[in-house]
Design brief:
Distance between the termini of chain B: 27 Å
Distance between the termini of chain C: 38 Å
CATH topology of chain C: ABC transporter involved in vitamin B12 uptake, BtuC
Strand order of the largest sheet of chain B: 5-6-7-3-8-9
Radius of gyration of chain C: 20 Å
Structural class of chain B: alpha/beta
Number of strands of chain B: 9
Chains: A mainly alpha, B alpha/beta, C mainly alpha
Helix content of chain C: over 70%
Strand content of chain C: under 5%
Number of domains of chain C: 1
Strand content of chain B: 15-25%
Order of helices and strands of chain B: EEEHEEHHHEHEHEEHHH
Order of helices and strands of chain C: HHHHHHHHHHHHH
Largest sheet of chain C: none
Oligomer: heterotrimer
CATH superfamily of the largest domain in chain B: P-loop containing nucleotide triphosphate hydrolases
Largest interface: A-C, 53 and 56 residues
CATH architecture of the largest domain in chain B: 3-Layer(aba) Sandwich
Chain lengths: ~280, ~250, ~300
Amino acid sequence: MYEFWILITASLVATSCALVGSLLILRRMALLGDAISHSVLLGIVLVYLIFQQASIAWMLSGAVLVGLLTAWLSQFIHQKAPLAKDASLGLVFTWFFALAIVLIALYADHVHLDHEHVLFGEMAFIPFNPLIIDGQNFGPHAFWLAGLVLLINLIVLGIGYQRFKLTSFHPALATSLGIQTAVWHYLLMTLVSVTAVASFDVVGSILVVALMVIPAATAYLLAKSLKQIMLISVLYAQAAVLIGFGLAWWLDSALSASMAVAAGLLLLITLVVKTITKKN
Amino acid sequence: MNAIETQRLSLGYNQFILKNISIQLPAAQRIAIIGPNGAGKSTFLKGLINLLPLRQGQVRFLDGANPAPALAYVPQREEVDWDFPINVFDVVMMGRHGQLKFWQRPNKQDHDLVRESLEKVGMLDFASRQISQLSGGQQQRVFIARALAQQAPITLMDEPFAGVDMTTENALVALFAELKAQNQTLVCVHHDLNTLARYFDWVVMINGGLIASGPIHQALTLDNLQKTFEGRLPLLENLQLTEPSL
Amino acid sequence: MSLWQDANFIWVLTGTLLLGVSAATIGGMAVLRQRALIGDVLAHAALPGIMMAFILFESTQPGLVVFSALLSSLLGYYAIQFLTQQTKIKTDTAMAVVLSLFFAVGLMLLSFIQNSTMENKSGLDKLLFGQAAAMNANDVNWLIVITLLALSYLVIVFHKLRLISFDPTYAQSLGLKVKRYELSFALVLVFTIVIGLQIVGVILMAAALLIPISIARFWSQSLPVLLWLAALFAMISALISTQLSMQIANMPTGPWMVVILGVLFALSWALRWALSRGWVSTKKHAQTAGNQADV
């Protein structure tokens, strides 16, 4: 059971990451995804500090707020201050992240987080933190969060698929058709934020982006349509979870980092195979 | 004397945009390069100064003068970030940095040359102005001053008249005449067919390859224009009206 | 006050100030090239090299750390170039892939080391968030040498770097060896990042590179003045964060430095805004800003 809960939770998280990651790289916003996955930590810490506990609903809303603030503020600074886009993004997310770390260090007694958790996640402890309602054990907390977030992702992406596709491939055309590109942009940022929260316990704050961009980038090399990119990147993400699990067991290394490295290995193999088949 | 001479010159980035250009451009002339969008006009200028990854064929400057002369280059204004924190004087001084080794600093002579170049384009009063505070025409004049500061016998300009005010345009036309009188060669990518004959002496028409090259009154024929623009020239009839020399 | 009599504190402070200055100036040049986040990637990419070197040699000697970090950062630099030039992967994706992948490899090796029986491994996790207090005299000596090298490089080739940043095509048309300058600048940037890892940490190194110059841009339009101001802001944040880091146990330096820089940014912006609205109408302010622009 122990391994089962870890694998299934990691797999749910990796699926969410691969889905939003596909859209992020198509929209050339991989670095914005990186930024949000960092700054979401501030949302989590603030929720811990203010409400002393982490209910799923509060965590999600705190993270969404901070995630959207990151996207909006970096745009705002870029427009109002003499700063390039990437510089204002870097400024916002490093500041949010640094503030979160400082708060964790200052209020270590109130926040059940430490640097290790931020970096590696607590994948190995997932099964030890169950969701208990009326004294009944419903399985790990992280599993339900990951499941919920995947459901949110599937529903939103399912309903808005055509719009996301149009606004990603041809934003100018979308605008001329009267589509509110900004709405879809911030909707995607919301998805990135909730995905980052669900991933936080599993892979930590910083490796989220590895699961978002690496499988999606690999799929981008092979796929010919958005649907294919999403499908292939989900498959790659599942493979990365399994291989990473094996790597961690073999080398006695952190699960989260091993899964990210496995995703990288798959990218490498894909590149090599692609080069060889191209030559023949 | 020929300022620029190319033999079977082919240029491009990933693939060739211009092919087999063999051309002889006389010195001390004002030369315009015309052609439709995407014809390879900017590519031609960039190829002459070796800014492109793909280049085949031969280029010779000033009948193969030894050492090969430096060429001054005026890129399109949009290619740089005008919010960059620098003032007019320092931008023009960049023209002197081709001759300076990395440890060398500009001396008094370099400073004088920069002031002289600014004077020629009427921008000396703006020397300490930040470039972000300049109008489009002033930006263009600064770029041309920078090229003048190079003191090169041949100057290549990519659309010097694009988006500039009348004052600047007149100043540039006067400057071009002055440069010609000093035996300098100018090669400009030019868009406006109406001013072509007034501003330039020689025309080069390209569209993926060379269509025609010669003195304006010989080369600027209806036939050549149609070959160059392939019917993408709605103002052709107007042009004939304004250019009786045709 | 007793801190100031502590010889170790003076050492650490010297190191932090030097680093702040070189990160702010070298990073400032990178920001002006519209490459603000390349430093972020290179800092993350340094991690696996350091961990690998530790596994191979079981040592955290500064020379070894610098060399191994340099190797793996440069590998990351070329990985980005490879992905963008040889595949259809776009620049931002390539940067995110390299950043997260190299960092993951570094973390994986770090967890491997922590679960192993190797000795002397205590300092390694400090590289992530930085701990200025953990520096010793040997580290500081390295820092001094590299900082001086980086700053003299900047002073010597300043004009060429500025030219290439402003207008690379023109620089090439002048016959400058643009590629060579770019590579040398990348090397100096990586050196600066690597020596900063102990103080600021891998994760927030980007902020030390890009925030100081961003603050300075509110106050001047002249590049030399901007760089001086950036260095000044970096020194202020270094001074405060080092004190905090040494007074409070287990307090990392990097996050504090970044928080302080962020506050300076917000204050500068607010003050500039108030000045432009005439809310704070001390003529003195306007004049100093004007004078700076003329320098």
